Amino acid sequence: MAKYLVCGGAGYIGSHMCKRLHEAGHEVVVCDDLSTGHLGALQWGLHACGSLEDAAFLRELFATHDFDGVLHFAALSVVAESMRDPQRYYGHNVAATLNLLRVMREFEVSKLVFSSTAAVFGEPLSRVIAEDHPTVPVNPYGLSKLMVEQILRDSARAYGLRAVALRYFNAAGADPSAVIGEAHDPETHLIPKLVRKAAGEGMQVTINGTDYPTEDGTCIRDYVHVNDLAEAHLLALDHLDNAVGMHTFNLGNGTGHSVKQVVDAVQEVTGVALDIPVTGRRPGDPAHLVAGSKRARAVLGWEPRYTKIADIIETAVRWHGTDSFRNWIAEASEAGDAAAETVRFDARQQQRKQG
Ligand code: UFG
Hints:
Layout: E1 3-7, H1 12-23, E2 27-31, E3 46-48, H2 55-64, E4 69-72, H3 79-84, H4 86-106, E5 111-117, E6 128-129, H5 140-159, E7 162-168, E8 170-172, H6 190-198, E9 207-208, E10 220-221, E11 223-225, H7 226-242, E12 246-251, E13 257-258, H8 259-270, E14 278-279, E15 288-291, H9 294-300, H10 309-320, H11 323-354
Parallel strand pairs: 1-2, 1-4, 2-3, 4-5, 5-7, 6-15, 7-12, 8-11, 9-14, 10-15
Antiparallel strand pairs: 10-13
Helix pairs in contact: 1-7, 2-4, 4-5, 6-8, 6-10, 8-10
This protein binds uridine-5'-diphosphate-4-deoxy-4-fluoro-alpha-D-galactose.
Residues 77, 79, 117-119, 141, 170, 188-190, 193, 205-208, 219, 221, 259, 282, 285, 289 line the site of uridine-5'-diphosphate-4-deoxy-4-fluoro-alpha-D-galactose.
């Protein structure tokens, strides 16, 4: 039994991690500022509400608890948004992580599992992306994650940090209990958008391009269940008990599904016929992203349980049918309205000053 700090534990993948840590008998402390996370997701362990950008808050947290390690999920993760506002991404994803690492060092906490992404690879040079594939990100989001990986590598060498960076491909699905799941507002990801559309929500879903060099012309992705991701983190923590240095692993099923195949699968699981219009390509979308996870399987002993896309979608459908999901989204919209009102207020203040 150990005590872990989960940064971003009120978010989608972080909350599934908290549940899994709790089930494994570990003690959990969540650090989350609830900027994108949900209060309802905080069902396991203690919650400290604050930002990784606040070093004083972090120091207090580490002074109060004796952590055996940290799992760091807290980040912004929408590619298009990172293109529009890169400084925000470098601030949240890089500068805030540096703060966390400094405080970890101060309090001699040396074990970290970090959420990285397939976006560190950029445009793939091969059909399957092996763990040693070159890293040439094509957007600030991917670059922000790669920068942190480099900081971890240097920190391992210089200060003896022990770190694992897990490069997720397309996280999907929800815990089969349906007590937690994905609830982004606005939602941008393909599977939840389709599932919500099938449930009658007014979702704007399109097929983003049919002229890619793939069999049916639509983009291929490697969808991996969120609980399989959480399991990999547990294995990574075990690995760090014996391994020094910094290690990277790919987390994916190794099987690709095209956008059209995902649409078909959602229709099949829900029994709802979907009429999805075709539009042009979404900028920055590589045609084919499929993980080679040999190292994760060989070194961590990771074996994804959800290998069928229909099974992954089925868990998402179950979650999206709950009142909890609807409540989380309603709360997120209210928070969004409050934030928008603050911006309008600031703008009025500004005008008054100028006028
Ligand atoms: N798509 C559509 N219509 C939609 C939404 C998505 O056709 O309405 C397509 C996208 O264009 C893409 C595929 O569905 O081809 C999957 O898109 P998602 O938005 O679900 O996921 P991404 O592959 O864009 O993003 C994921 C992670 C990112 C990570 C990226 C790596 O969410 O964090 O993979 O490329 F950076």
